[in-house]
Structures are given as structure tokens and as C-alpha cells.
Amino acid sequence: MYALVDCNNFFVSCERTLDQSLEGKPVVVLSNNDGCVVSRSKEAKDLGIPMAAPAFKYKELFKQHDVKSFSAKFELYNYKSQQVIDISKSYVMDYEIYSIDELFLDLSGFKYVDIHEYCFKIKDDIYNKENIPVSIGIAPTKTLCKVANRIVKDFPEQFNGIYILDTPEKIEKALKWLPIEDVWGIGRRLAVKMHDSGVYKAWDLLQKPEMWVRKIMGIHGVRMINELKGIRQLELDSPSPKKSIAVTRSFMEMLTAKEEVRERVETFGMYCSERLRKQNTCCRMVTVFVQTNRFRKDLPEYRNAITQILPNPTNSSILIGRVVNELFEAIYRDGFHYKKAGVIVNDFVPEDERLISLFEEDTQNQHLPVMKAMDAMNKKFGKDKVRLGSMSGENTFGRAQLSPEYEAFLKSNTLPEANFRFH
DNA sequence: TCTGGGGTCCTAGGACCC
DNA sequence: TCTGGGGTCCTAGGACCC
């Protein structure tokens, strides 16, 4: 059996560890620029605030019901996440970190242990030490763990945070209850196709011929069906180095000056380079994109992206910055109101296995010591203390004022690397 | 006034090879 | 008259996840 440990409304729970008085009140956490809602307490959900709700549309409601809202504090969330992982993994031999607020535990080999009781101990331990409430869903496959977790959350009084989905009878009952769109791996598009074909519950999908599923959903669908039947198709993954790194942001205000956009894009490129060096890889591809505000139908729309394959893999901020600049020049058009831009790097090779083109000058190795020194100084003295001349050094992204509790937290903790998948 | 920021995997089609 | 077939690699786009 696997267990899925899922932190309840994780970002909000993290905020509550800093301020106990938030307990029992409606609380939301907002994305960058305080744009939209990314985490909601139960009380906030009950007020009808949907996930990803644009904050400006709900301002009145927030005021009316005294909803507390916070800007995201990712250092805090990453730190708490690591604490939860450390506690959970101490109970098992094998585990998989699935996201910032979820991890799978391998319970095979626990034949003679009362799994239910054991998972209660994990849950209580996490709550006692870290003040983070979790739900645990237990089942023979990952997909069924997700279902079990959903059941825990939908029937809180009945299950008290833990549910085991093990017998065929329980599985059948659960799948006849679960809407198809809530199955792990069914997104918005597939949900529509499912409804069109009369599939409304997870159970209905199992009644469809395999060929049909294969045609509509590809190989995912076949795996999904087996997983729902309790036949294991997905193993626990061991942590793997990233295959792409992206730094993208929406701007607080729309930008019309070329140099302002350039400065941001160059900064994004530098962040990408830093993250490449952190995992000791070089990239062979760089992509730059810019776009206008797609919600402003009154303004002309423009979006473009361009990718360059590098002759020699690199993680030098200087070399990547140069490429980013060229690409930016190639796609930037005057006369638009830019709202968002980003840099994405991919196609990685380990730093020490680079194959060098014979015909292109390669200065990566000259840059590396300087870059590593820059990284070390930034680590010691704070983010962006040492930077390239092209960066303005201004804080270009908005963030609300930090609470005193959070300032205290930042001072008192050595923060772990922020390399989790989001959420 | 104001709408997030990351990631992964799969597939179809084209280029190219013999 | 008649115009191969199989394979790989790459890329863009689409789907999904949190």
C-alpha cells in the first residue's frame, strides 16, 4: 500500500503557524503581485471563493467577511514543507516528494503493523511538531490514494484525517461516487470529452472499452484505468534533476519602454543561470517570450517567443544574458503594453560533461569561477547583492509588507534550497 | 486600477537517413 | 503500366499536475 500525505490548505496553514489568531477565520494567500488566490482556508472556501480567483474581483467579499489575505512567502512554505517531509520520511523506507504540500509514502512491508494507527501517529507527529494539519489517503495505487485523500477531505467528521481505500467493495463505492473530473489526470479538456460520451463518474470510465479510452486519452488513459482498478502502474519516483527551468513574471504595471522590459528579461536570464549553477548543469537551449495583457481587449495584443540553440552549453550569467538580449531584440516590437515576460532554459548537460563545438569560441570555463564566486557572495550577503551591470537592482515585483512574525522567522532560520515543484 | 508561476509527459508530423 | 518502406530524431503543441 501507498499513503499520500497531503497538507491541508498548505500556504494558509503556514500563515497560521505564524499567527495563531488566524485559526478558524477565513484566510487566503495570494500569488505574485497579489494577483489571484492560490490557497484558501476552509472558511474561505465556504464563502464561495474559488481557486485562482482574481483578487480584485473579490475585494468586496474579503472586506465584507473580514477575510485575511497574505502575499505568498515562499521561503516560509519551502521551509515548512521540508519539515513535514523530514518527519514523514522518518516513518518509512521509501517515499516520493510529489509537490510542495504532498508526498507519497511506501507502506509495503508493513504487514504486521496496524496501518491506520501508524498513519495516525505520523499525522499527529506532524501536527504536534510543525502545526501543519495533514490528510492521509491510503490505497494500493497512487491514483486511488488521491481518491482516498479526497474522501478524507469531503467527510471530515467521519474519518478524522485518514482513510484506507483497500477492498474491492470500498473501491467500487468510491468510484461510483467520484465525479470523473476529479480523477487525477482528468483536466478541463478531458472532462468535457468525458461528459460528451456519458462518462460522469470515475466508475463509468471503467465500463468503456479499452480501445476507446486509448483513443481519447492516449497511454495515460490505459494506465489510469488500471490504477483505478487497483493494479499498480505508477511507481514511486526518485528525485530527478530538473529538465527545464523557467523564470517568468507578470509585471505590476504594463510596460511600454523597451529598456524596462529588457532589464527584466535580462534579470530572468540571470536567475535561470543561477539555478542552473545550483544544480551543476549547463543548458543548450534558451527561450525568451514577451506578451501583452490578454485581458485587455481594448489594447492591441502581441505575444511572441523565440528559441536559440547554443553552440556550447553554458550556465554563465554573462553568456546567457548575451543570448537573452539577442532573442529579446528579435521579438520585441514597439508600441505595445507589455504585461508578462519570461526566460526558459532547457536541454541540460552536467557541468563537467560538456561537449565543446570545435568552431565556436568557448568562454564558459573562464566565466565559471567568477559566477561561482558571485553565487557564494549572494548566498552569504543576500539575494542580488552582487549582480550584473545590466540589472537595475530595483525590486521589480510587488509584494505586500512583511509581518513582524515573518521577519522574525527569516532571521531565525537557515532556509533550505527552494527547489520544489510549486504548490 | 486589478487576472500566478512553475513543471512534466505524450503525440503527431516533418526532416532525414538508408 | 509503374513512383518503397522502415526507422530515428526533433519540434511544436496540447494535455495534465500543483
Automatic annotation (TrEMBL):
Keywords associated with the record: DNA damage, SOS mutagenesis, SOS response
Span of domain UmuC: 2-187
TM segment ranges: none
InterPro entries cross-referenced by the UniProt entry: DNA/RNA_pol_sf, DNA_pol_Y-fam_lit_finger_sf, DNA_pol_Y-fam_little_finger, DNA_polymerase-Y, DUF4113, Rev_trsase/Diguanyl_cyclase, UmuC
Annotated GO MF terms: damaged DNA binding; DNA-directed DNA polymerase activity
Family assignment from sequence similarity: Belongs to the DNA polymerase type-Y family.
PANTHER family tied to this protein: DNA POLYMERASE KAPPA (PTHR11076:SF33), DNA REPAIR POLYMERASE UMUC / TRANSFERASE FAMILY MEMBER (PTHR11076)
The protein's name: DNA polymerase V
